[in-house]
Amino acid sequence: MTDILPFTNEDLDALVHLTPPDWGNIIPAYQQYLLMDICSPFKLISGTEIIGVGAAIDHGMTGWLGHIMIHPAYRSKGYGTLITDFLINFLKKRGVATILLNATELGEPVYAKLGFRPDTQYKFYQKESSSIPELKMNAIVPCTNTYYGQVLELDMLISGEQRSKWIIPHLNSAMVCLSLDHVRGFYLPHLGDGLIYAIDADAGCALMEHRLQDHAHAMVPENNEHAISLLERNHFTAYRTARRMYLGPPHSWKPESVYNRISGALG
Questions:
Q1: Which of 1, 125, 157, 235 has its CA 20 to 30 A from that of 262?
Q2: Cα gap 100→63, rounded to integer Å
Q3: What integer pLDDT is reported at residue 149 of this predicted model?
Q4: Shortest CA distance to 218 belongs to which of 171, 168, 266, 260?
């Protein structure tokens, strides 16, 4: 007998046995879900064993499914479909119109059967050394409260979503690229993998180069030719992909302005 119940702090240790080997440590993500009122993590139980988990994230008219994982011994038995369908209905009951997710190769057929359609594809790049020649741009500066409003507006313009509850806690550590006191792009180093959004290629690539002084990996949409060109010029190699998918009305956003995504759970 299976059941789906709210995920709690006492369940965090169970994530170790569910997480695919190339996903890294998922526990911080679920700790964050438990702290935020817009996030609702759930567990799938068989008897007394947690065999799957997943989270629903509510941004209002849009929502995300995050970190859906099934124990290896229970895969290909319909449990992924079961918890995904539960999360979809949970968000629909809250009035979410468009539901988004990032699918692995393993998960994509499951989501397609549930009606999700492909949007774009993220490409994952890595390099043995994290350092690349940095473009010297004095316009990249720490973000002060003078620019907080502009960063939030730019995030909404590019993502097409209301994500202020994710962005605001990270504004005091953000970096921005300015032109005549106008924010052309921003970098949030401590939000997921380090979100970078920019309205033009010069700002986006400069912020990428700033980030890549300390990181040997990057995740960008296939639509962003400028970001991909920068990575390939600096000998980064694409090693896997993830398909961004949506259920419901098509969602308007600007993937060509994404120079590093947040995570698989938020795009």
A1: 235
A2: 6
A3: 98
A4: 260
CA nearest neighbour of 175 among 156, 162, 194: 194
Find the DSSP H helices in 36-181. 79-93, 108-113, 148-159, 164-167
* pLDDT tens profile 29-38: 999 999 999 9
Taking the CA atoms of 166, 171, 177 and 180 in sequence, report the sign of the dihedral they define: positive
Q: Is the pLDDT of residue 190 over 70?
A: yes
76 Cβ partners below 8 Å, 6+ apart? none
Q: How many angstroms separate the CA atoms of 210 and 96, rounded?
A: 36
> Could you tell me which residue, 260 or 1, shows the higher pLDDT?
260
Model confidence pTM above 0.85:
yes
* Over residues 227-256, mean pLDDT: 96
How many Å is the maximal CA-CA distance in the chain? 62
**Cβ of 189: how many Cβ atoms within 10 Å?**
17
**Would you state the structure tokens that stand for residue 136, as one six-digit string?**
């010297």
Q: What is the DSSP letter of 59?
A: -
Whether residue 123 contacts residue 261, with contact meaning beta carbons closer than 8 Å, is answered with: no
